Amino acid sequence: MTIQNRIAASLMAAALFTGASSLYAQTAQNQNSNTTVQDWNTPPAGTEQAGAFRDGIEAAKLDKLANRKVDAKASHLYLHPPVKGAAQAAYRTSFEQGYNAALKNAGGM
Question: What span, in angstroms and rounded, lies between the C-alpha atoms of 63 and 51?
Answer without folding.
Answer: 18
